[in-house]
From TrEMBL, chain A:
InterPro entries: UCP021940. Pfam families: DUF2209. It comes from the Archaea. This is DUF2209 domain-containing protein. It comes from Methanococcoides methylutens.
Automatic annotation (TrEMBL), chain B:
It is found in: Cytoplasm. HAMAP family: GTPase_HflX (MF_00900). Belongs to the TRAFAC class OBG-HflX-like GTPase superfamily. HflX GTPase family. This is GTPase HflX. GO terms for cellular component: cytoplasm. Its cofactor is Mg(2+). Keywords: Cytoplasm, GTP-binding, Magnesium, Metal-binding, Nucleotide-binding. Transmembrane segments: none annotated. Its main location: cytoplasm. GO terms for molecular function: GTP binding; GTPase activity; metal ion binding; ribosome binding. Coiled coil: none annotated. GTPase that associates with the 50S ribosomal subunit and may have a role during protein synthesis or ribosome biogenesis.
Length: 130, 415
């Protein structure tokens, strides 16, 4: 089994005057095709006024992952880092990083996506923004 | 056998090893289509709009064709209609690209009506965007005047579109047939196991070793085009093992979709037996596994994946361990085998057995009567009878799928 931290960001589009984003990181233990156990989940909201560039995205991810006390490679979808090649993205992170490859990594990202999306929906409802 | 020259244009900063691998694969494909490769031409540059490779390189190719008496030129890169036309004009021989070559192999190997239809569909889909260009290229000189050609172009394109619709409808109907066959097999207590993996990973050899039957096994790509299915029994559990067409690098998505029926066997299986060629370099294995996971991710529904790391007899044990470590996060439930020598097959069968959909155990008592006896024989057909005792009534310990257990529920007794 391998420890990984799957990360997903929801809300990278403009609403009213800003970008209401929620980043979710889930720390899981995975085998090649399944999630074996979930250790920790971190959710953090971010609000910025202009469209996030790649440096912002990296910063958002690192801030969220810093909440966790868990070893493991950060796993992301290609699109989240604007389809940058892996060797380039790796240099931007202070921790180990790679794009999704195995079935379990994809599952974990899907998991993180559900967490971030529903947290964001809840947040938007609380703020009264549609 | 036709003499052919293979050509590949590489992007200037592309990975050399990957380029070499692609070229080797193209040569194997050509071999599979019964061509003899007499020459190779490689150029590193960005694509030329008119010829794909450079102008000077095309002249060089023309000389090579003449010197080697080649009858065909096969490009690894996808060619536009204009490029095919321009190159064949210069080289004075037939020119095709990798996808046309694959289609040619598929057409030659397709045996069932369904497979033939799928090949035709793929061909037409490939042809469609080119239809207009082909007509205007052929009739370049005899353009009759205002709006003269439009009619021909449209009708040619329309014909193709109509044929595509007809084939799609027919395929849809026949797929319903195979789907009901699959449900029937499931109902009969068969679990479905599909062999998947890249071409030449050894799927057909493994298939043959497992079912001990003669399917065509050749060191050639695409020997299995129409899926072959045979039954296999492990520890009294019946399963159907299907050999499927191999994945291939850079196969366009529409082509994967066109051959869905063979891949459907993978996507609807209870267990996917992913065969990996361990004699490949570790980067290649990794890449192939990533692509396989990508294909499974979009289409499978809850099937268990078992990875058979094949051709272990070809490499030393230490190398094997090293490779195994690197790819372990991509290889679910791995087992090392050699389909050729039979090594590890017992272990693989055990693993398959363990991953089959769970059957329930129960003890039943059936009355000693004609009806009871017919029930006994029915249970022998549908499940596994572990123990049977004949007395005033018939005491049985059985293992079967849920539906069967439900049917005999009135006869169950506690332990």
């Amino acid at each position: 089994m391998f420890p990984i931290i799957a990360v997903d960001i929801s809300g990278r589009h403009r609403i009213n005057q800003g970008y209401y984003m929620v980043c979710a990181a889930v720390a899981v233990n995975v085998s090649a095709s399944h999630i074996e156990s979930v250790s920790q989940i971190a959710v953090k909201p971010f609000l910025v006024s202009s469209a996030p560039d790649i440096a912002d995205v990296v910063n958002i991810i690192e801030t969220t992952v810093a909440e966790m006390n868990y070893p493991g490679t950060i796993i992301l979808e290609h699109g989240d880092l604007y389809n940058q090649p892996e060797w380039l993205s790796q240099r931007m992170f202070s921790r180990e990083f790679k794009y999704q490859e195995s079935l379990s990594e994809r599952l974990s990202i899907e998991f993180a996506h559900h967490v971030s999306l529903s947290s964001r929906n809840l947040l938007m409802k609380e703020l009264g923004i549609d | 056998m036709k003499r052919t020259i293979v050509v590949q244009r590489n992007d200037p900063n592309a990975d050399t090893a990957a380029n070499e691998r692609k070229l080797a694969e193209l040569k194997e494909l050509a071999h599979a289509a019964d061509y003899v490769v007499v020459g190779t031409l490689v150029q590193s540059r960005y694509p030329d709009r008119k010829y794909q490779i450079g102008r000077g390189k095309v002249d060089e190719l023309a000389e090579l064709v003449e010197a080697l008496e080649a009858e065909k030129v096969i490009f690894n890169n996808q060619l536009s209609t204009t490029q095919i036309y321009n190159i064949s004009e210069t080289c004075k021989c037939e020119v095709m690209d990798r996808f046309q070559l694959i289609l040619e192999i598929f057409a030659a190997r397709a045996t069932t009506r369904r497979a033939k239809l799928q090949v035709e569909l793929a061909k037409l889909q490939y042809e469609l965007p080119k239809a207009k260009a082909i007509v205007s290229l052929l009739k370049k000189e005899e353009r009759p005047g205002f709006m003269g050609l439009g009619g021909y172009e449209d009708s040619y394109e329309q014909d193709i579109k109509k044929r595509i619709v007809r084939i799609r409808t027919e395929l849809l109907h026949s797929s319903k047939g195979s789907e009901s066959l699959r449900t029937f097999r499931h109902e009969r207590g068969f679990s479905l196991v599909a062999l998947a993996g890249y071409t030449n990973a050894g799927k057909s050899t493994l298939f043959q070793s497992l079912v001990e039957e003669g399917t065509i096994v050749e060191d050639m790509l695409f020997t299995t085009l129409s899926p072959t299915t045979r039954s296999l029994t492990i520890n009294y559990r019946k399963m159907l093992l299907t050999d499927t067409v191999g994945f291939i690098e850079d196969l366009p998505h529409w082509m994967v979709d066109a051959f869905r029926s063979t891949l459907d066997e993978i996507f609807l299986a209870d267990i996917i037996l992913l065969v990996v060629d361990m004699s490949d370099p570790v980067d290649v294995i990794r890449q192939k596994l990533v692509v396989s996971h990508d294909i499974f991710w979009k289409r499978t529904e809850g099937a268990v994946i078992v990875t058979a790391l094949n051709k272990t007899d070809l490499i030393p044990y230490e190398d094997l361990q090293e490779k195994m470590e690197v790819i372990s996060y991509l290889a679910p439930a791995p087992v090392m085998i050699s389909a050729k020598s039979g090594e590890g097959l017992g272990e693989l069968q055990q693993l398959l057995y363990e991953n089959l959909p769970k059957w329930e155990h129960c003890r039943i008592s059936v009355p000693m009567s004609e009806e009871g006896m017919s029930m006994v024989s029915w249970l022998y057909d549908e499940g596994i009878v572990h123990t049977i005792e004949y007395g005033d009534s018939i005491l049985m310990e059985i293992e079967a799928r849920d539906e069967i257990i439900q049917k005999v529920k009135p006869f169950t007794i506690s332990y």
